[in-house]
Amino acid sequence: MLLGEVHPVGPASAGRELRVSVILRGKQAGMSLEQMSEIMRNGGNGVSRRELLLRHRETLAERMRELQESVQVIEHILGCPQEDFMRCAEFRILLGDDTEVPLSPSVD
């Protein structure tokens, strides 16, 4: 053991480690400290905990959908056959933009 290392022993330290893990994972998932506290609260209302988790799961699912759409846009730009991707009809469709823009000739 190095100087300054702490090796917790026993069930109390295991509980602390688990709470720290929950907090870190919750932070990574974008949860507030208040939300994490509600989830971990002993004797807390199981219904409210479930509702909180269901809402947060939907928030995460929406974020994942948005991120996947962003990945698709980036992938299109990287492989776009148009010299100016801003004039690419497919790119504009990915963005949901139906504004008419004169298309430049394709690059073959």
From TrEMBL:
Q: Which residues form a coiled coil?
A: 50-77
Task: Give residue ranges for domain Transcription regulator MerR DNA binding.
Answer: 19-75
Leader sequence range is none
Listed A to Z, the keywords are: Coiled coil
> Which superkingdom heads the taxonomic lineage of this protein's source?
Bacteria
Which Gene3D superfamilies does the record cross-reference, listed alphabetically?
1.10.1660.10
Pfam family name, one: MerR-DNA-bind
* Keyword Coiled coil annotated: yes
Question: Which InterPro entries does the entry link to?
Answer: DNA-bd_dom_put_sf, Tscrpt_reg_MerR_DNA-bd
UniProt protein name: Transcription regulator MerR DNA binding domain-containing protein
The source organism is Sinosporangium siamense
